[in-house]
Specification:
Blueprint (H helix, E strand, L loop, with lengths): L3 H14 L5 E3 L14 E4 L4 E7 L4 E8 L4 H17 L3 E7 L9 H15 L6 E2 L3 E6 L2 E7 L15 E7 L5 E3 L5 H12 L7 H25 L8 H20 L3 H13 L5 H13 L2 H10 L7 H9 L6 H4 L6 H11 L5 H9 L13 H33 L4 E3 L23 H15 L5 H16 L6 H14 L3 E4 L8 E3 L1 H9 L9
Parallel strand pairs: 4-5, 11-12
Antiparallel strand pairs: 1-2, 2-3, 3-4, 6-7, 7-8, 8-9, 9-10, 12-13
Helix pairs in contact: 1-2, 4-5, 4-6, 5-6, 6-14, 13-14, 14-16, 14-17, 15-16, 15-17
Amino acid sequence: MISGETIADNIFKILKGNGHKIKIFTDEGENTVDPQSARRFYIPELGSMVNLDETDNKRELRVSVNQNTDLNEFKDTLALLKNLANRNVIEYTLKSFTKAITPKDQDYQAQKVRDMKQDVQEGISPAYGSTKSSYQQLENAKLIIKHTKPVNEESRGSRSRNINAIYIENSDGERYKMPTNNLAGGRAMLRHVKEGGTPYDDFGMYIQEQCNELKKLKEFKKYTLRNGLVNEDTTDIVEAVSNRINSLREGIGKLKGCKCYKETKEKFEAKEPVNEGFESDEVMAIMNKHPEEVAKMKQTGDIDSRSDLYMELVDYYSDEMPYGTMKARDGDPIEWILDKLDDLDMLESAQNKLRNQFTVRTFDEGLNDALPYVNALVKEMKAIKEADDFAKETLDNLVNTIDGMDSVKLRKGVDVKSDPENPMNMSTFGNMPKENQVAVVMEYLGNSIDYAKKGEDQLSQLLTRMSDLMEIVKERSILVKAVGAVKALMPKLSATASEDTGVKKVSVGNYMERKLSNYEFDKLFG
């Protein structure tokens, strides 16, 4: 039988010989320049794709065109491809789609190939079984897939489709049904059971929760797109949901690998337990004592500062609430209390607002289970925005302070050229993430400035505060502006020599600028 490499080479010659410009990819979706290793042949000018699919039992030459493809222009090529398939007993299929084909449209097939190859590398057996059930083995643990339709052995990837239920079986023959039909989640649990875990231990429950969150968020996204609910008010939420879906998919998919599984499990076990459950129970006990006031608070979204409910909550949080906020000097105590209740999901206002934002005429009650996950993403977005806003305000003050100063003195005895505390003198500095480089330089300068003067004291505080914020801000413009602030400060730095030397000042601006230029700060985040 003629090899797949020879068939691929013949496809390449047919396409090129007919004057088509093509891009070729391996079966894993990687770009290649070797025609014999190619299995996907993309023709940009026609928006069409030629695929060579191979399984143990079948080979298929599949041509995908779109409704705008001029078949008269393509007919000679199609005839040669069909003839190639017939000569070599290869099934030939021509399919037409309503839109132009792109390499991205084939990603799902490439991912299946990558998954199968990774399974083998990780010791997971190829899928096998009957027409109703499929199995994958990882040493003494087994993955069992029950299908809704008969498996077609001649169709590539058929054992990963039409899934009705997924079970995990341990070495004792005990079976556990996965809560979702996510195959990547099943393989993650397969790895966990093989490593001695159970679906009911902490990490097993973590895997299940990740799968459940992914399922609910996918349902939520599908619902919003199907009902046209993406608008100016909801687009940020839907984007956050999409990003979270991609993150969950990637994380769950990697868990089947031995190395990634162990790294993730170590991080999971290293997390400190959160005591929010105790706080939630205690706050709920307070609220249960004042049902009428709680009902009014949930209805209005506000709390009466003269109510017994408010007074008890203030007393409960007296050790945690900032003194200035409690006295209403630099914050609103009512808003602070409401924020705490919202964080504990005691208000229901956040989830009710989401219900209203994503309601067509009547809300799909099936999405209720997705709202806690979406609400958590909204809270995360809010926290990031608040951090960015605080960073912007701090950075503006820093820039204005630097602009208002002609020179900035370093503390006596600080020699930036030989100071071992200067991060730019450390061999590891260039290997740090760019945000961290800026952060440690700011921290060093903030601690090195002679803050005897009022202006320089303020500058020192702003530098150290901005240093702390650098690692949590997400907005690129803030990072770029922070780099500009550091560069503007450099020419103004000067070091005061010891009093007995008779030397008044030694300029250090050029040295610091030169050190910074070694790390191309102008190109940061570009």
